[in-house]
From TrEMBL:
Residues 1-39 form the signal peptide. The chain crosses the membrane at residues 257-276. InterPro entries: BTN3A2-like_Ig-C, Ig-like_dom, Ig-like_dom_sf, Ig-like_fold, Ig_sub, Ig_V-set, IgSF_BTN/MOG. One of its GO terms (cellular component) is external side of plasma membrane. Belongs to the SKINT family. The keyword Transmembrane helix applies. It comes from Sparus aurata. The gene is LOC115590457. Its main location: membrane. One of its GO terms (molecular function) is signaling receptor binding. Keywords: Disulfide bond, Glycoprotein, Immunoglobulin domain, Membrane, Signal, Transmembrane, Transmembrane helix. This is Ig-like domain-containing protein. One of its GO terms (biological process) is T cell receptor signaling pathway. Gene3D superfamilies: Immunoglobulins (2.60.40.10). Residues 53-135, 138-244 form the Ig-like domain.
Amino acid sequence: MCGLNDGLSLKAELSFFRALVLQHTVILLLLTGSCGGQAQDAQPPLRMVTLVGEDVVLPCRLEPPLDAVSKSVEWARPDLEPRFVHVWHEGRDLLINQNPSYRGRTSVSIDKLKQGDLSLLLSAVKLSDNGLYRCYFPSKDKKTHVELVVGSVASPVIAGININSTAEVLQCESTGWYPEPEVFWLDGEGNLLSAGPTETVRGPDDLYTVSSRVTVEKRHSNSFTCRVQQNHINQTRETEIKVSADCLEFTSCSAHVAVLVVFVLLFIVAAACVVWKWRQIQTKGEFN
């Protein structure tokens, strides 16, 4: 009788253990599926880089392709109020609640909507367009996020300041950058030069002005480059200048050329006066 009870107790324990294992397995599978779904929804946003004044297409596609002309498409920026950038609803634009800063600058293509392409064309990009955009297709509860990075660039200008007959201070300045750029000086062989600290000023329009100075020696055909770059938007602008003992291109050279032009003009005027006077004398001689 005791052996029978022990057997029943063992079977009960095994059944309980199996049920416990099964329960944990089901919970684990549910958690795995839930995490998988979250990972799928938490896809990193697509990153688009553009410059102020350009047009840019924010991509959004349905997979598999679906004709979306008669459906609804919402483009929005959650950080704005109102948040809607562009809304397409059942065959037409619905722009009643569009954010005013995007008025007249957004559009979707009907031909592309037929192919499941919900991409948004944003024209004449502004610095304030920088941000995270959400493309939402309610019929399939599909969301796509696009990060738009807007930059602004400008070519640097170099000016020379004479110190003495053997040295020159070069100043490089560039106005109208966003985000804040870096400034580098290079010699004619592409080697980095040691320069003073970069001065940075941010204007009321949020654009940056940067300036930098470097002292160089005047040598025959010695060239230097000021490079302004912004790695976040992958943009670089540079200007080259040639310095020698006789002339600083773009500055001292311009002065030399101006003086030469004045002398040439004076010579031409003097020659014209001489020729005119000579012709007058010749004419008087013929009449006499």
